[in-house]
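Quick start: what a row looks like.
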Amino acid sequence: MRNPTRQINIRGVAIGGDNPVAIQSMTNLSVTDVEGTLAQIQRCVQNGCDIMRVAVPNKTAVASFAELRKRTDVPLVADIHFDYRLAIAAVEAGADKIRINPGNMSLTQLDSVIDCAKANGVPIRIGVNGGSVNKQALAAHGSKAEAMYASLEQYVRYFESRNFTDIVLSVKSTDVRETVDTNRLIAALGYPIHLGVTEAGLLRQGLVKNSIGIGALLLDGIGDTIRVSLTSDPVDEVQAAKDMLVALKLRQGVTFVSCPKCGRCSIDLENAATQIYDYVRNMKCDVKIAVMGCEVNGPGECGDADLGMAGANGNVVFFRHGQRYKTVSAADAVELFKREIDKITNAD
């Protein structure tokens, strides 16, 4: 059951309401490198990203952002900190949404940003992070989660008093439990929520922390757009987010399973599984593919798969809907299995 929220639109991508959970990532190059940033955006979109965020730290970056806007139709979010004038300039440069922390601006400055966003029909993401939560809120509440909620609610009420409700909420912490607890609190506010565990770390650590935090909330029905924050290539963020949504049946895609391998395995399972996964990972069809190492797990795990392969005494057996139908040599198995995948995905 999805948590009920308002709906907002970001250059044709609707989030909130009953819309699918949208995937976001953020470029990690200076936006002044327009060509490199554009290429990075295109790679992310090719791998399933819906919305891209770009840091806009100064006036020079605003000019580059405007050029970027002219050269892509992908929804672009301008990431702004401290200088309210950059937020206004980014909106005027064509940003489809802006991300701000209202605590970094005076009320007069915030009013100017709200007025500009309203005049241009641009949504605002209100962000509060564990590292920048209001000190007064921390002193007044028993936990950081409650303090972050109180800070965010205060901002929401202020935006509402200014008759601006085209907002997305975001509360993040490096602490997974804190992130989960705070997002469960803000769900009651009724606005679309952007999920993520901030500063989650390198690839392996970051995947674990984000999967626990984002996954727990999505299972609660909370979350309308996600970013898997990683110290890595943005494409890794997109792929992880997509895998997460497919695993939770929140996005159509190939369900891929492979066994952990044991001493009975008679084929190069890791290599075969990697090649097959890379082949199917961007397919949007709703099929299950199984790659197994031996005859113990093979028939069982392939039994509920649309297509499966399992090692058997140096050869590989193919299964379709649980029925064994072909045996091939291990050397030819991967390429032949790709052809079988093409048959069922084209049929679907």
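That is the whole record. The longest strand covers residues 323-329. The two ends are 28 Å apart (CA to CA).
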